[in-house]
Amino acid sequence: MSSRGVPSLLLLFLLGLPLRGGSQEYSPPVATYRFGLSLNTGYNGELFTLFQLKEFEGKTIGTEPMTRQQFVLQAQGAVPSKANPEAVNLFKQYEVRACVHPDDADGTRFLRDCDVLDQLWRLRFWEYPFLLAEGQHPGKGWSENRSAPSPRQLLLLTDYGMLYLNDMARGENVFRLLRDVGDSSWVDNYRKGY
């Protein structure tokens, strides 16, 4: 190796080291992912839509609809997810009891579905909006209006980041909403407006 090559190698080596004296390395911002939920009819004819959101510097730059099974498995940490990279059971973390396997003491038992998702239509409608087969009776919805929550009910939904009917709950708010939809006292307040 020539004597000319040694300073070049030394320079390359020094460029790879962090600077001393309190300076920090610059790392460019990266996009993050989290779950989203909308009360709009969407994917697979459900009366809600689940999403994986891509966010950058506080703004949503991408939305990818998910099936309810994809959402349930990813939120439990049963399958890999960009919105749940640590594979935490988010239903357990946020106490969405209806979505936690009753025998999951060690964190290895998962559900394939979550029944509380079947209640989401009730937030928006006072009657089930689709034609039912003979013998099916889903019960009454919780909305004060035929096809949309009342202004008072929308005010309650703002606590989950849903400022408008077509808005979306994001991240932790998705799981807080699912937990509360499974709570009879919260539902009673939503229906009657105490």
Features:
alpha+beta, 4-stranded antiparallel β-sheet, single chain, 13% strand, 7 helices, 28% helix, 194 residues
How many DSSP helices?
Answer: 7
Helix content: 25-40%
Low-confidence stretches: 9-13
| Rg (CA only) | 24 Å
Span between termini: 83 Å
Oligomeric state of the chains? single chain
Query: In percent terms, what proportion of residues is strand?
Result: 5-15%
SSE order, as H and E?
A: HEEEHHHHEHH
Care to count the β-strands?
4
Q: Indicate the mean pLDDT.
A: 85
Biggest beta-sheet profile: 4 strands, antiparallel
**How many separate domains?**
1
Estimated structural class: alpha+beta
Apparent shape: globular
Across the major sheet, the strand order is 3-2-1-4
Description:
The protein is of the alpha+beta class. It has one domain. It is 28% helix and 13% strand. The protein contains 7 helices and 4 strands; from the N terminus they run αβββααααβαα. It has a 4-stranded antiparallel β-sheet with strand order 3-2-1-4. A hairpin with a 2-residue loop joins strand 2 and strand 3. The chain is globular. It starts with a helix and ends with a helix. About 3% of the residues have low confidence.
